[in-house]
Design brief:
By secondary structure, the chain is α/β, with parallel strands linked by helices. It has five helices and five strands. The protein has helices at residues 22-35, 47-57, 73-87, 104-111, 125-137, and strands spanning 11-18, 40-44, 59-65, 93-98, 117-120. The protein has a five-stranded parallel sheet with strand order 2-1-3-4-5, with helices on both faces.
Amino acid sequence: MIKQDDVTPLDRRRILVVDDSRGIRELFRIILESALPEREIDTATNGREAVDEFSARHHAVLLLDLNMPVMDGETAFLEIDRLCRNRRWLMPTVVFCTGYAPPDVVRALVENGSPHRFLEKPVSEDELIGVVRDCLKA
């Protein structure tokens, strides 16, 4: 097990919104920029872009759609987890977002005391802001 002192901390100023729907991505970005003006909100359109963006900036929180082309959210999560272990980075808190029932892996992650969360679309503005604020405190 890696000790907390032996890893690179997250960039607590940064949040990454990942969704293949431009409308959802932009709506989440606008809501979060308005509610959390001290944070930088980055976006990605699929899991591959999410891994690349996270690799460059080490975001504190990721809002991650599960059903996307190129690379889905579950695969992106596993890639980010591996990247963090290899680079000795702290793992970000991931908020999985979908309008469908989450896969077993995601369900197990969010139900077993992990810091990761699940939001079912459609999500209210208050719920989105509340979950992200909670994640930033972790």
